[in-house]
Amino acid sequence: MGLFTKDIKTMDDLLLHGLQDIYYAEQQIMKALPKMIDLATNRDLATGLRSHLEETQKQVERLEKVFAKLGKEPSGTQCPAIDGIIKEANETAGEIEDKAVLDAAIVANSQAVEHYEMCRYGTLIAWAEELGHEDIVRFLTTNLNEEKAANTKLNTIALRKGVNKKASTAA
């Protein structure tokens, strides 16, 4: 599916394209998470990211089941949005010297990823329901709920576990 081609003709084509987009995105996130885990100095943050890496692997497996239910081979299509979010996160991390400030940036960048995923999964669920693909809705809903929970955990780490407070008092 090219940038200026008309490969998406039907809503089913659009759903498949969306699934390929999030499949690619989840794989890129799995590649990016280990670096964020290594950079994180807050124990709760590192633990949360490790846990989400395991969840992301399960999310990819669920997406593979979705492709199978649709009779399609799992495949990704490049997603400039997630590539940009990850690129920005890497660039920001490279500009921050103070570890406490870096932890706050990791939380913020991770939340940008979560919000992108929540948006995509919500749309895919609506499309699948509209197209009568009830057999894939539960897999997508499980992934969406995990993304929402990950975002909530990141909020807790930032606000209640002291990441933002520590970053705000950094020299």
Overall description:
The N and C termini lie far apart (49 Å). The protein is built from six helices and no strands. Helix 1 (11-39) packs antiparallel against helix 2 (43-69), helix 1 (11-39) runs parallel beside helix 3 and helix 3 packs antiparallel against helix 4 (99-130). It has 171 residues and is mainly α. The model has no long low-confidence stretch (mean pLDDT 93).
Keywords:
80% helix, elongated, 171 residues, 6 helices, mainly alpha
Architecture blueprint of SSEs:
Layout: H1 11-39, H2 43-69, H3 80-95, H4 99-130, H5 134-159, H6 163-168
Helix content: over 70%
Q: Total number of helical segments? A: 6
Query: How would you state the average pLDDT, rounded?
Result: 93
Write down the Rg.
Answer: 17 Å
Coarse shape: elongated
Helix and strand content put the structural class at mainly alpha
| Extended strand count | 0
Low-pLDDT ranges: none
Summed up:
This protein has helices at 11-39, 43-69, 80-95, 99-130, 134-159, 163-168. It is mainly alpha-helical.
